[in-house]
Amino acid sequence: MSRLCGSRGAKRRRAPCASLIALAIALGAGTSLAAGADLHAVDTAKLHYVGAVGEEVYETGSASGTLPGSMRVHMIFASTFSGSFAIYTRGGRIDGHGKARPHGEGVYESFAGTLVVSGGTGRYRRARGTAHLYGTFDRENYALTIQTTGTLRF
């Protein structure tokens, strides 16, 4: 196990992974909109730890809300967390990247940040958008809950 995943501090650093995924969810919504439309979406995601290689952590999970789907996230942790995400929906895959900053100490840690959707496949091949993300991370059991609010254009 890498030092990131093997320490208590690593648990608190994983929170932004879920954030990135949740944003992808919020930005990926709009299965009934025409091309070129703007969609405001609010979604919630729950993620779990899959593994790590060096400083890069992998997480997967599911989202509910405007656009339900499955997600994958790759994160690198520094003073600001950064990473990339993909969300898999009925209409195609949505890709992007984001950043989040943790706040507080203790068992439950909150975090906040932003995400950018940069493309995808299928109906989302030209997707672009931004979103705010908020969430909590339980350091004892790795549970992540993320909420996103954003706008997607595709």
Descriptors:
single chain; 8-stranded antiparallel barrel; 154 residues; AOC barrel-like; alpha+beta
Overview in brief:
This protein has 154 residues and is α+β, with helices and mostly antiparallel strands.
Give an overview in words.
The chain has 154 residues and is α+β, with helices and mostly antiparallel strands. It has a single domain (3-153), classed as AOC barrel-like. Helix content is 16%, strand content 58%. It has 3 helices and 8 strands, in the order H-H-H-E-E-E-E-E-E-E-E. The chain has helices at residues 3-6, 8-13, 15-28, and strands at residues 38-53, 56-65, 69-76, 81-89, 92-103, 108-120, 128-138, 144-153. The chain has an 8-stranded antiparallel β-barrel. The longest helix is centred in the first third of the chain and has 14 residues, at 15-28. The termini are far apart.
